[in-house]
TrEMBL record:
Keywords: Repeat, Signal. Residues 57-160, 166-275 form the Gnk2-homologous domain. It comes from Eragrostis curvula. This is Gnk2-homologous domain-containing protein. The keyword Repeat applies.
């Protein structure tokens, strides 16, 4: 289980003179019958809102603030068309796509990528939300990079394809510490290092694997990990990004039994809790 932050909304319970719990709507009805219907309706609204799922939001995005475009400008029109082309392109290109739209000086460059440990449906769900979010989330920004837990979207008024960006946008850790942190770190270092080389040399810029070991307490463990890069990166850039993440893992998640780091160029996830569900996109047939 990964740690998370959530907001919990509660409704104070009503009690009668004997301290017995009374439904809030019932208590209001007995005291002021004329308010009965209103109380029941209000409570129904509160209960419904408590059951609503949280809004799907990205990690903090990088939005440029200088040289912003204006509403209705040619660049805004190009971006609006670009982000929809990116979503459709990823859907027909195995969850990754990059392209341009428009002519200089208003040309827009864009890229999207889905992460391999989510279903194809989750990939498209994420891309739909990213496309819908950027306009309001980064209004009038000429350069935007935004990461969700399932996908990445970037666009700019300058070329960035093939360029390495070592910015890390999120690291998420488990709630459980390894009993043998030192042994786990050695295994993680070696496993992620091996997968980094495999991912960098793969056409999909992705690798997944595991390593079995016995920790210092004598318990058998199996670590699972994945490494993934943007597919526009060459071998050296991909391998360099993943090795950078490997070093940060050792510093920031020294004893967690599971965790992941997301950046604008690559992604690493590992755990000691069982195999990951790696979902391949549907065949292009």
């Amino acid at each position: 289980m990964f740690s998370s932050i959530s907001t919990l909304m509660t409704v104070k319970q009503a009690t009668d003179a004997n301290g017995v719990h009374v439904d809030p709507a019932s208590a209001v009805c007995r005291r002021r019958p004329a308010w009965c219907l209103l109380a029941v309706l209000l409570l129904a609204v509160v209960r419904t809102s408590l059951a609503e799922p949280p809004v799907y939001t990205p990690f903090p995005a990088r939005c440029s603030t200088d040289n912003n475009f204006t509403a209705g400008s040619t660049y805004q029109v190009n971006i609006d068309k670009l982000v929809h082309r990116l979503r459709d392109g990823a859907a027909s290109n195995e969850s990754f796509f990059y392209t341009t739209h428009g002519e200089k000086p208003d040309m827009a460059f864009g890229l999207v990528m889905c992460y391999a440990d989510y279903t194809w449906e989750n990939c498209l769900f994420c891309l739909d939300h990213a496309v819908a979010w950027v306009g309001a989330g980064c209004p009038y920004s000429r350069n935007v990079s935004v990461n969700y837990d399932r996908c990445l979207l970037r666009y700019s008024d300058k070329p960035f394809f093939g360029g390495l960006d070592l910015t890390l946008t999120a690291w998420v850790r488990s709630l459980t510490n390894a009993t043998d942190a030192a042994g786990m770190n050695v295994v993680r270092l070696n496993l992620v290092g091996r997968l980094s080389c495999e991912a960098a040399g793969s056409p999909r810029r992705f690798a997944y694997g595991n390593h079995s070991y016995v920790d210092s307490t004598g318990k058998s463990q199996v670590m699972y990990a994945l490494a993934q890069c943007r597919r526009d990166l060459e071998y050296g850039e991909c391998n360099g990004c993943l090795n950078h993440v490997r070093e940060v893992l050792e510093q920031e998640l020294p004893s967690d039994t599971a965790g992941y780091l997301l950046g604008y160029s690559c992604y690493v996830r590992y755990n000691l809790t069982g195999p990951m569900e790696i979902i391949q996109p549907p065949s292009l047939g």
